[in-house]
């Protein structure tokens, strides 16, 4: 594999130094990357004991949230699906969202589908997938792998596992994941990606169907909906843990090799 000056600059920005065998102008050997920091599992679900209702007292008046409505996304094209997601009430996560985060990238067929963890506060506020510094790092990673999520010629599509932010950043509950699977399934059907990149612990566990630590899910090829899946770190995590950028680049190279083999 040969690298042009633009890719070298991007890799350097990611903190990755090309191995001597791949770099015709080698630099002094890079320091060993620090051991992989395994992301902590999501916090346990709090269970609150509910007292039995008094037999003779009327129940207190409560403000009822609108019930979740099962959504049918079959047959929608990408713009219509985006509109449907913006108005979706398929699960309780719609109650507190500011914006549903549909995702961004290829307008038709995508080479890579990048599935990230559920929206954080900045995504919920903006409606954009991976805004800010994490998004800029993600864009540099994609560009180093020959992918891009912006422009009419975008080759990748970046979207969160569920489109609405769980309150206080908690992990999505099983019913919420199940409800939003229909959106992801329609995105896959429309975009027909050749490789899926799962970025972050929650995305990785959902797409691989396991509860294993991220470190054990990286470095191998999983299957999801008949597609090859590669697991790597979340962009936000990589901002805080630069030592793992080299490992993330190894994951991207694995995804790249699958794309070339497909
Ligand atoms: S998380 Fe998904 S299923 Fe739930 S309301 Fe948002 S878009 Fe609909």
Automatic annotation (TrEMBL):
GO molecular function, one term: 4 iron, 4 sulfur cluster binding
SUPFAM superfamilies associated with the record: Uracil-DNA glycosylase-like
Pfam short name (any one): UDG
InterPro entries per record: UDG_Type-4/5, Ura-DNA_glyco_family4, Uracil-DNA_glycosylase-like, Uracil-DNA_glycosylase-like_sf
Domain Uracil-DNA glycosylase-like: 102-253
Enzyme Commission number(s) from the entry: 3.2.2.27
Reactions accelerated catalytically: Hydrolyzes single-stranded DNA or mismatched double-stranded DNA and polynucleotides, releasing free uracil
Keyword tags: 4Fe-4S, DNA damage, DNA repair, Hydrolase, Iron, Iron-sulfur, Metal-binding
Protein name per its UniProtKB record: Type-4 uracil-DNA glycosylase
Naturally occurring in which organism (per UniProt): Roseateles puraquae
Source taxonomy: Bacteria, Pseudomonadati, Pseudomonadota, Betaproteobacteria, Burkholderiales
């Amino acid at each position: 594999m040969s690298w042009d000056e633009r890719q070298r600059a991007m890799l350097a920005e990611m903190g990755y130094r090309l191995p001597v065998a791949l770099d015709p102008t080698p630099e002094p050997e890079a320091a060993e990357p620090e051991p992989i920091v395994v992301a902590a599992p999501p916090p346990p679900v709090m269970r609150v004991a509910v007292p039995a209702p008094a037999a003779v007292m009327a129940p207190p008046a409560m403000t009822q949230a609108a019930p979740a409505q099962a959504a049918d996304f079959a047959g929608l094209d990408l713009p219509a699906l985006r509109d449907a997601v913006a108005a979706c009430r398929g699960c309780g996560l719609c109650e507190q969202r500011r914006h549903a985060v549909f995702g961004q990238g290829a307008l038709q067929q995508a080479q890579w589908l990048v599935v990230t963890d559920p929206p954080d506060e900045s995504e919920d506020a903006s409606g954009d997938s991976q805004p800010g510094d994490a998004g800029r790092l993600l864009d540099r990673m994609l560009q180093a792998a020959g992918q891009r999520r912006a422009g009419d010629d975008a080759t990748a599509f970046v979207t969160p596992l569920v489109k609405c932010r769980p309150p206080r950043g908690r992990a999505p509950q099983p019913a919420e994941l199940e409800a939003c699977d229909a959106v992801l399934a329609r995105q896959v059907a429309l975009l027909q990606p050749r490789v899926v990149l799962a970025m972050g612990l929650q995305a990785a566990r959902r797409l691989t169907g396991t509860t294993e630590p991220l470190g054990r899910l990286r470095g191998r090829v999983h299957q999801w909906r008949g597609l090859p899946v590669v697991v790597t770190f979340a962009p936000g995590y990589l901002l805080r843990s630069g030592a793992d950028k080299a490992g993330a680049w190894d994951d991207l190279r694995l995804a790249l090799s699958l794309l070339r083999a497909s």
